[in-house]
Design a protein that fits this description.
- This protein is of the alpha/beta class.
- The protein folds into two domains: about 35-125, Rossmann fold (3-Layer(aba) Sandwich), CATH 3.40.50; about 145-270, 3-Layer(aba) Sandwich (Rossmann fold), CATH 3.40.50.720.
- The chain contains eleven helices and ten strands.
- The protein has helices spanning about 5-10, 15-35, 50-65, 80-95, 110-120, 130-135, 145-160, 175-185, 200-205, 255-260, 270-290; strands at about 40-45, 70-75, 100, 165-170, 190-195, 210-215, 230-235, 240, 245-250, 265.
- The strands form three sheets. It has a five-stranded parallel beta sheet with strand order 5-4-6-7-10.
- Helix 8 (about 175-185) links the parallel strand 4 (about 165-170) and strand 5 (about 190-195).
- Helix 7 (about 145-160) crosses helix 11.
- The longest helix is centred in the first third of the chain and has 21 residues, at about 15-35.
- The chain is globular.
- Bound molecules: NADPH dihydro-nicotinamide-adenine-dinucleotide phosphate (NDP) and 5,10-Methenyltetrahydrofolate.
- 5,10-Methenyltetrahydrofolate binds next to helix 3, strand 3, helix 7 and helix 11.
- This is Bifunctional protein FolD.
- One of its GO terms (biological process) is purine nucleotide biosynthetic process.
- Catalyzes the oxidation of 5,10-methylenetetrahydrofolate to 5,10-methenyltetrahydrofolate and then the hydrolysis of 5,10-methenyltetrahydrofolate to 10-formyltetrahydrofolate.
Length: about 300
């Protein structure tokens, strides 16, 4: 912490960025309401995972703060597949609901793929329906998953044109790694997706101008895996014990990585807040598409 100027310069403030996105969403919502349209987001939570309940509560609060309607459906852990599918059917048919999010992971006895694919693709604000996955992969207009969308917004803001940059994504999940790769490829990065079987992960990471960590392992990526000047996006949300208290850390060792990175997102206060802001942006986009209105500029991928 010797040079305060440098310290400030290379931090990407996801919290502030997200507040700006929410403000722009709210301005669009105000305009829609003049035409008597209020975007609505339905969030479905099955079971009682404390972390998920926090996210769902935060989503509800922020949804109402931007002027949208929030519909929360909390179902018991022993909910049947049929009951969940029936709820999705009702939400699909409800004209007041423009976005549907089913909080993951679902309890083991439920078939998550079947549930996600039952959501009306136009209301699929998570972008997890196979139709949206296929549209994104083929470069067509899709609903883009919120976490990668938030990462892309921050990267474009920081770096401008991304074309020709080496992007390394650590993690190949359907919800983060793969859609992140699709978006960066669309922006003409040279994309590498690394995972648990990757050989010489350190060497692969050191090639990255853009390094996205989406692994779920606390502080797995040390500063000496980061190319000097690289932009580091830390998606990881890991709860660790620290002196008898729990706190959140990312997949990147923040202190050592920050010392070499050109820019880096913190945890908390980085990708997480942007994910929720992009969920609201996607709900707005879904509402505009449903109403046949022009899409909000700068809030889609
Ligand atoms: N900020 C936000 O808004 C969000 C944060 N998250 C967080 O991001 C993290 C990742 O989430 P998610 O994508 O769902 O996770 P998954 O568990 O679905 O995927 C983790 C990926 O990391 C890879 N991996 C695991 N161990 C290693 C290793 N030692 N070396 C290299 N790769 C490894 C796995 O490889 P393999 O496929 O070979 O097993 C897998 O592809 C979590 O911490 C999660 O909490 C998730 C969603 C949103
Ligand atoms: N269908 C579905 N869509 C999701 O997008 C989805 C999901 N299921 N399941 C769980 C993951 C995780 N996720 C986060 C969202 C916000 C924060 C967030 O706001 N984090 C704050 C801190 C919050 C805290 O203090 O706990 C931050 O990083 O600053 C984190 C994680 C969305 N997910």
């Amino acid at each position: 912490m010797s040079d305060a100027t440098t310290d400030q310069d290379n931090l990407i403030d996801g919290k502030a960025f997200a507040a700006d996105v929410r403000q722009r969403v709210a301005a669009h919502v105000t305009r829609l309401k003049q035409d008597r349209i209020t975007p609505g987001l339905a969030v479905v939570l099955v079971g009682e995972d404390p972390a998920s309940e926090v996210y769902v509560r935060n989503k509800g609060i922020q949804t109402r703060e931007v002027g949208m309607n929030s519909y929360e459906h909390k179902l018991p852990a022993d909910t049947t597949q049929d009951a969940l599918m029936a709820l999705i059917g009702r939400l699909n048919a409800d004209a007041d609901v423009h976005g549907i999010l089913v909080q993951l992971p679902l309890p083991d006895h439920l078939d998550a793929e079947a549930v996600l694919n039952a959501i009306d693709p136009g209301k699929d604000v998570d972008g997890f329906h196979i139709l949206n996955v296929g549209l994104l992969a083929t470069g067509q207009k899709a609903m883009v998953p919120c976490t990668p969308l938030g990462c892309l917004m921050m990267l474009r803001d920081r770096l401008g044109d991304l074309s020709g940059l080496n992007a390394v994504i650590v993690g190949r999940s359907n919800i983060v790694g793969k859609p992140m790769a699709q978006l960066l490829l669309r922006d003409s990065c040279t994309v590498t997706i690394a995972h648990s079987r990757t050989r010489d992960l350190a060497g692969v990471c050191r090639q990255a101008d853009i390094l996205v960590a989406a692994v779920g392992r606390p502080r797995m990526i040390p500063g000496d895996w980061v190319k000097p000047g690289a932009t580091v996006i830390d998606v990881g949300i890991n709860r660790i014990e620290d002196g008898g208290r729990t706190r959140l850390v990312g997949d990147v060792d923040f202190a050592s990585a920050r010392a070499v990175a050109g820019a880096i997102t913190p945890v908390p206060g980085g990708v997480g807040p942007m994910t929720i802001a992009c969920l609201l942006a996607n709900t707005l986009t879904a509402c505009c598409r449903a109403a046949g209105l022009p899409e909000p500029e700068g809030l889609t991928a």
